[in-house]
Design a protein that fits this description.
This protein has 479 residues and is an alpha+beta fold. The chain contains 16 helices and 16 strands. The protein is elongated. The structure holds zinc ion. The site of zinc ion has 8 residues, from helix 1.
């Protein structure tokens, strides 16, 4: 039996207005090369100045990931040539990252696994190459856009603690959730503001040695990470089982064939000739400042999820979905404050509200239903003003129009019929029109009563009180 040993590097673009070492804008959709200056293009003599907010975000993230924050941190030059890197070096943190020795707890199948974080460091992003007429091998020429050059990145490196593709998926989801809660990155994989590289090797289960490392690239979604890892576990296991050796290489995930493809073999680790960045002084990170930043940390997803199970008595599943984003969790809590019964609120938020959000592509931040209006609608249901079935219709209208439930019920005449006399008339008519079914009920076929209830509901357009209809039918057809 083999087990995979997986480590993940995540690059998250920080949500700052300006770049890491200059005042150029970080806007994503600006015209090519419009957000550039002598500093981010690397002109001779241009000097970098550190963006304080990027450092603050780095410390904040380090704290949220349970890292030790460096007292002295600094920047280094990583030297290499590539067209999207006009300076011929990247300013990064090698020797003294802002945070080290952290961890994330990941819940999987009812068990909590602790994934250690090796380091969290700041670095600048490179530009972007656009290969005209194909990929890099088939293109007739390439264009360079340096707008992204110098955008602040936070690199978060895990220890090789991940033991399954599923766990990798959960780790990334939790990390993304934390970054979103902190508000330090918008984590949009489709815009490249969150990217991940994965290392995987396999070894005999229980062994403490490491196998040959394979690096996976071109992972454009967390699902791609999971699937590419599943593929690699299988592939590497077969290689080893057949008595051959896994080759140390970088492999590319091919979405179309759902397979990894060899890209390039790796010799020894590349020598980037790191040296301390001479244009930036070492940073002394004061403990008072760190404590101030710690005090601004929001309640993080794992803590909030646990509180939801304890304070509201919600199942783990509900708590996990509701705390997926801060906005959704806030919305849920706002409804509960007005209405009380948390599980009912949870059912509506995860049920009807999520269904309509998915169907329309509207995010929770743009939902027109005010939490107070959802609470009011639930109270109307409890009072019997509207039936559960009608509530769904009312809610859809609230979602579309943003009106209060009272207004919708009044405008559309949706008040539940609870008048016994009125209902009795309708029930009698339904029995008349469905003699055969009525006889079946009389003969003891209790299930058939559901059909008659359905007919009454149809006739009243769902406005009849179903309990009363049931009672009236039973009075007439059973003894
Ligand atoms: Zn610039």
């Amino acid at each position: 039996m083999f087990e995979p040993v997986i480590g993940i590097e995540v690059h998250a673009q920080l949500k700052t207005e300006s770049k890491l070492f200059c005042s150029c804008s970080t806007r994503f959709d600006a015209a090519p090369n419009s957000n550039t200056c002598p500093i981010c293009l690397g002109f001779p003599g241009a000097l970098p100045v550190l963006n304080k907010k990027a450092l603050l975000y780095g410390i904040k993230t380090g704290l949220a990931l349970n890292c030790e924050i460096a007292e002295v941190s600094g920047f280094d030059r990583k030297n290499y040539f590539y067209p999207d890197l006009s300076k011929n070096y990247q300013i990064t943190q090698d020797a003294s990252p802002v945070g080290v020795c952290g961890y994330i707890d990941v819940a999987l199948d009812g068990e909590v696994r602790r994934i250690r974080i090796k380091r969290v460091h700041l670095e600048e992003d490179a530009g972007k190459s656009i290969h005209e007429g194909g990929d890099i091998t088939g293109a007739s020429f390439s264009l360079e856009d340096y707008n992204r050059a110098g955008v602040p990145l936070l690199e978060i490196v895990s220890e090789p603690d991940i033991r399954s593709p599923k766990e990798a998926y959960e780790y990334l989801s939790m990390l993304r959730r934390i970054l979103l809660y902190l508000g330090v990155s918008d984590c949009k994989m489709e815009e490249g503001s969150l990217r991940c590289d994965v290392n995987i090797s396999i070894r005999a289960k229980g062994s403490d040695t490491f196998g040959t490392l394979v690096e996976l690239k071109n992972l454009n979604s967390f699902r791609a990470v999971e699937r590419s890892l599943e593929y690699e576990v299988e592939r590497q296991s077969q290689v080893v089982a057949s008595g051959e050796e896994v080759i140390r290489e970088t492999r590319h995930w091919d979405e179309a064939s759902q397979a990894t493809v060899s890209m390039r073999r790796k010799g020894r680790a590349e020598d980037y000739r790191y040296f301390p960045e001479p244009d930036l002084p070492l940073l002394s990170i004061g403990r008072t400042w760190v404590d101030e930043i710690r005090a601004t940390l929001p309640e993080l997803p794992a803590a909030r999820r646990m509180r939801f199970t304890e304070e509201y008595g919600l199942p783990e599943y509900d708590a996990s979905l509701l705390t997926d984003t801060q906005e959704l969790a806030d919305y849920f809590e706002a409804v509960v404050r007005e209405y009380g019964q948390a599980k009912i609120v949870s059912n509506w938020v995860m049920g009807e509200l999520s269904r309509l959000m998915n169907a329309t592509g509207i995010g929770i931040e743009s939902v027109k239903v005010a939490p107070g209006d959802l609470a009011a609608m639930l109270k109307m249901m409890d009072k019997g003003t509207i039936s559960g079935k009608i509530a769904k219709t009312v809610f859809e209208e609230m979602f579309r129009e943003g009106k209060s439930p009272e207004t919708i019920v009044k405008e559309k005449g949706l008040v539940q019929i609870t008048d016994e006399e009125e209902l009795a008339g309708i029930v009698d008519r339904v029995i008349d029109e469905n003699q055969k079914v009525a006889d079946e009920v009389r003969a003891g076929k209790d299930k058939a009563i559901g059909f008659l209830v359905g007919q009454v509901m149809k006739m009243t357009k769902g406005r009849a009180n179903p309990q009363m209809v049931n009672k009236l039918l039973r009075q007439r057809l059973t003894n």
